Amino acid sequence: MKLQITYRDFIRFLFFFVGICIISLGTVLVTKADLGTSQISSVPYVLSLAVDWLTFGQATLLLNFIFLIIQMVLLKNPLKISLLLQIPVSIVFSYLIDIEMHFLSFWTPHTLIIQWGMLLLGCIFLGLGISLEIAPSIVAVPGDSVVNVIASVKRIRFVKVKVILDVTLVIIALTLSLFYFRDIKGVGVGTLVSALLVGHVVIFFNQQLRGVYRTYLTENKPMKENKLSV
Q1: How far apart are CA 26 and CA 38, in angstroms?
Q2: Which UniProt keywords apply (predicted)?
């Protein structure tokens, strides 16, 4: 049996994959800036510092699986395709984080200017990656999908759920940090900056790339539908 994949499908998956790659790079840059990582990455990062055998990527995968289980419980349908697709996405994303952390392991910013530069560059990459990831509407990453599911099932505004989740993760990260190190690690001014900045960067790239998305991702636009048999 052959699975027919159109050229447009291939382009959509390509946009999505490139977006995931850029998000992981942005996550690593924000983290390596050492001013405080993003809210969603704060718990995995602190865990990776506290547990010797646990990498940043593996801790991220663990958190994403927790998000996935929450969705399965709320939706009462663990075999839902949109949920199952989050498993390979989470694995790839976590693997990319570890690869990029490894390649940038030599880089330690020694001045505040370089730290802020890495932080801002990381936020730009995060915004661009998120824009590319959500544009094809293939599958949402667990951290975003769990917010959608909770908001829908519990009938709570998306923004409210997102804020509650972010604050909860930061509190957990702070608690773990104080418990393991008697100091604050992984949470700082960079956490606040990324929280305030990334959303605006996403909006900026959505506007700048609107024509590209319309051309390559919208069904009603003419495009040669070459089919790839796999």
Answers
A1: 10
A2: Membrane, Transmembrane, Transmembrane helix
List, in order, residues 6 or more apart from 130 with CB less than 8 Å away.
19, 23, 198, 202
Label residue 230 by pLDDT band (50, 70, 90).
very low
Contact 133, 145 (CB under 8 A): no
In terms of Cα–Cα distance, which of 36, 27, 31 is closest to 187?
Answer: 36
Question: What is the chain's length?
Answer: 230
Structure tokens at 194: 């990324």
Long-range contacts at 48-56 (CB < 8 A, ≥ 24 apart): 49/180, 49/181, 49/185, 49/186, 50/176, 50/180, 50/181, 55/98, 55/101, 56/31, 56/97, 56/98, 56/101
The DSSP element (H or E) to which 201 belongs, if any, is: helix 189-208
CA 193 → CA 37, 84, 93, distances in Å?
9, 33, 23
Q: Looking at per-residue confidence, does 141 or 3 come out higher?
A: 141
- How many Cβ atoms sit within 10 Å of the Cβ of residue 120? 18
Nearest to 116 by CA among 45, 174, 29, 22: 29
Using CA atoms, how far apart are residues 55 and 106, in angstroms rounded to an integer? 16
